[in-house]
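2024-03-11 09:14:02 INFO receiving multi-entity request
2024-03-11 09:14:02 INFO entity count = three
2024-03-11 09:14:03 INFO echoing inputs for audit
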Amino acid sequence: MSEAEVIQDSPEYELETDWMDNMGEWGMQAKPGKRGLTLEEIRIGSYGDLPEVSDNMSGHPRGAAERPDAYRVGGYGVRSLKEIWLDNATFLYEEAQQRQWSSATDIPWETVEPLPDEVEEAECLLCTFFNEVEFVAGDVPARWIAKTTPDYMEPRHVLLAQVMDEARHMDVFRKRALANGGGLMRMSGATSGFVGSIDLARDFTEMSTRLHVSGEGAVLSMFRMGELFGQNEAEKRMYRLCAQDEARHVAFGVMHLRYLNKACPERREEIHAYLDEAEAQIMAGLQNPAGTQAETSEALAILLGGGKQGYDEGHKKLLVVRRRQLKEYMQRVKTAGFGDRFEDGRSTVPAQYEAAH
Amino acid sequence: MPQFPSADWFQSVRDVYNSDPSLHSGGGGACDTVAGFKIGAESYLITFEGLQCADVRSAPDKEMNDADFIIEMSEELWTDMVANVQANGKADLNHTLNSIDLTQEESIAFSPVDDQYRQDLFYRFNQNFQDFFDASARVETTFK
Amino acid sequence: MADSKDSGAAVPAAVAGAIAAAGGEMVSGVPEPTFEWMGLTNQWGVRVRPDEHGLRLGDLNVGIYGEVPEVWDDQTRRPRGALPRPGIPPLPYNLRAKHQMWADCAADLYEEAIQRRWIPATEVPWDTLETLPEDVERAVCQVLTELMQYNNVEIEIINYWQDQMSYGYYEVKQYLATTSFDCARNIEALRKRALSNGGGLGLESRGSVNRMILESRGGWTESVAYLYLLRGTFAMQILRGLLVHAHNDAERFIYSHMIQDHARHLTYGYDHLKYSITHQDGQAGIMQTLLSIGEAMMGTELDDPVLRSAMAIIMGGGIEAGRTKGMDAYLHLVGDFVRDYLSICDWLGVEREERLNPNIAKYLEY
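2024-03-11 09:21:47 INFO inference complete, emitting structure
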């Protein structure tokens, strides 16, 4: 039967086409750039316009034509650009897309070989701790994704990639703990919801400052340390790839703060207060250093020293890396535009950094 | 046989890196950055675009400020790392870029304009740089 | 926060250290370690080996680490199998029963999602896009706009529940992280397609089913019923219809990969519903009620002329044929959705044929 015959033989139905005159801006011709057809390339015409305040309460894609009878199901808490934006969101998202990896097949698990018991215990304690820490880093962005208007899809997409990354981190550390004759150890409890903690933030920037800049900045240093004390290629690679992901998350936080600093100078004092709190938590364990030797510090010292017999040496290496950690934290906060806190005496991190020599 | 360090050597490594996808390991992926290598008195700029090393060349000091970050080590440390790759087929556990970095008092990577965001690209794209130097195992190398 | 064996939270290693104390005092020497943590484990000596597929999440379920209890009372972030620590305050992990989220396939689907990832920016052959007739381009862009909104709803509802799900069932949480990442990628690919061939975005969805999904507060299972059993089964038919009528390799790539991703989502959804129904008394009855409500909403949505007309135009190759064979094909597609839906309901033990909402049942004639 020919096409015409098929059409002729088919019943005729009503076809509404009014909607064709009620669509978004038309004639878009985004073209792939050097990096392919990225989110940056499709920010064209009105589709690239970002509302300072979003009144998209129906959850439609930015730029879609609106219906007068659409249900207002949004209820979004994050609806202003200043609350969440960062200038390089599209790059970070595309980078995350490009750099995904599989803990099942990209880690050379066959290179893991039996280690002395104390070293294995230290590694397993660390893996238990990281497994737990990544729970926070997965749950908390997820909560904020659901509360953010899709008008800000770019930063939202970066957070979605982060949730994916953190799931992979949870998985890889559990795998390592169970791959070499060890097991999971005792939980640290460090991730519970204390006042002022990442969990309980009611403002996105507060959450991001604590999670991305402070928390993940610290974890990044620990992942990098992991490559230093990694006993085999599997561990080295595991920590290196986790560090890559973590650096991306840190970049989100730094760039969001940088944007906020320019867009909302009236919030500077507030941000400083969040940084005060984050730094105080970092310092909280230091009020009696002899009494606050965290389990994970002991485990790190064992790993860096190659065993209990090298504990002192390992501890010294740990201090060197922590000094680096403090320096990088200060550098990131400066890059974000809040470096004045290290010059006017507000922050005691510079003193700690000097004292750590 | 190119000598390390030299523009010829880096370009030979680049050719190897670009020619064989198996050298781009999982966890690498597309990477966009311009980095500098300072090796004694010599400086090189390397550009990654996507999955390729687009360019690597000798560069005067003043151009190094264009780099997102610079990896600077003593010539001895650089030579030791490259020799280790030559001997083992890839960097051994103590000679990866991160391992070397963390055994130094100060970071081997820094931003020439003091921008930690750009310096952090050394961490974000670390696997690509590691793959690049591991690829040098296939370049027969002489040393000074 | 002092750190001792019996205290609450240990200060993370990243925050402790013998750096100057708050008062700026120097501390010299290496603090004496306690090593109290050594030997504190539920089960030691575990050695899971990779096989030809690598070291997968499901492979870790050995010994006590594989014991997945029917109820996980722990409201902390204790990894399953790790030793608890006294004094840790609870967090609002309100979903703590296995039947509230479990699917046996979750761990496998997690690994599959990672292995089958794709990158719209560089893997879609965007250069194969060619100008389409105006009516067809508008229809394509309209359908893609609707699908973007479907994916947005999926993201929002998953992430709403995600942080309420306890870590006793971490496989599900990890799998759902891949699902929302898939949805992000789908939105990305669809938006890129809509903005790269002379078109733009379409009219937003009316949102009847969107609202139903987002307003499902009775538990994740209720959300799954609406998101996957009702909406998801329909969406799969839409994707298949688009694939059959794709105009170029770029569209074929996008739709075929979205189908792959979506199939995983449906597998989890159906598997979870089955588990829930077979492990919770009365759940089958609850499902009957939920589906009665859901079918009514679905019927309302299916009556909306915008998606139906747009699909008919695509499937007919234009407005003219859209009125005839295109609409015919679309109605048959919806009929296939209803048939699939009924079949899955039967499999779940929640037969719907006799109770099917008339506004859905009418499509069975196609």
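2024-03-11 09:21:48 INFO post-check: Chain A touches chain B at residues 34-36, 91, 94-95, 98-102, 105-106, 220, 224-225, 227-228, 230-233, 236-237, 240-241, 243-244, 246-248, 250-251, 254-255, 258, 320-321, 324, 328, 331-332, 334-335 (CB under 8 Å).
2024-03-11 09:21:48 INFO post-check: Chain A has one domain: 81-355.
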